[in-house]
Target: Tryptophan synthase beta chain
Amino acid sequence: MQPDHRGYFGPYGGAFVPETLMPALEELIQAYGAASEDEEFLKEVTYYLNDYVGRPSPIYFARALSEGTGGAKIFLKREDLNHTGAHKINNTIGQLLLARRMGKKRIVAETGAGQHGVATATVSAMLGMQCVVYMGEEDIRRQALNVFRMRLLGAEVVKVSSGTGTLKDAMNEAMRDWVTNVRNTFYVIGSVAGPHPYPKMVRDFQSIIGREAREQMLKKTGRLPDYVVACVGGGSNSMGIFYPFLEDQEVHLVGVEAGGLGLSSGQHAAPLTVGRPGVLHGSYSYLMQDSHGQVHSVYSISAGLDYPGVGPEHSYLRDAGRVRYTVATDKEALEAFHLLCRTEGILPALESSHALVEAVKLAKVLDNSHNILVCLSGRGDKDVHTVAEGMGEELV
Model:
């Protein structure tokens, strides 16, 4: 689905931003519209995705994992094999090439798990741009390795101590920076969230995941998958893999939110499951909020899913019933993390582990004539300290 001219997917989306940002958003809408129809720009994006990122990422049949569940066959879309180890770089390649085309020399970004920050710092270094990344204090603690990687790449990492010190607070500070320095600064949003045109633009850059996966599954199995499963925080990897399958009604699409300590605990990040519509970070979408409309604090063991909102297109797809959204708890995600490590020799990101939980549940009730495709959105090296903490072990 394409948003309308105001950036709405049905009732969701829009641009709820300070008046000072409207000219910058209008400039971005015009620039992206022109670039997306420019064959030279699209060729340049494709060149970097192929020769720098390493695309296409493969589809892998997880034979041991599938046989262990005793049911359907599970396939993995290996976004963890991209340069920098996650799907995030697909979008940063596109946005930073657009920033350069617009004459912007300073880049700001926010990050939770650090994967978007690392990807932004990486492409900024390659293109010779100044890069500032905002990151919550709690996420800096959880993702120390990625903070060091960003600094090695020349980025300035700004600690955000307000609120819960997580992704929501980092995004607030990045938007304030953008408002202050809008003349020379391009804001690289890492998810399908934020004001129009970001949800559409990020989806377009990430839809390379689903376009490749659709073609690869047809070639590998002779048909489309029965299920496509992906984790949902802000929702970029899931929107990227879902989008090219939306018209294939025989393909069931499942998004998995962070169930944290359980929905009854109140310690989770599941706006599509238990939230209600409201405005956050420039768009109208489902979000976690209290009875007064104030944004709720959220929690997940996965820093990348620890966000109270979600992209507006996901909200539209939820209401339309095209995508089923569910949750996986921290405990289930950790079990899935260990399961993939031990059956396939792959350390998945904790974000991706949430999607694996649902894939395993489905595989146990479906016979082996069914195929399940999981978006393995990132690798788990960044999460080993968190996993070790969960196991009660201290890394030397």
In short: The mean pLDDT is 95.
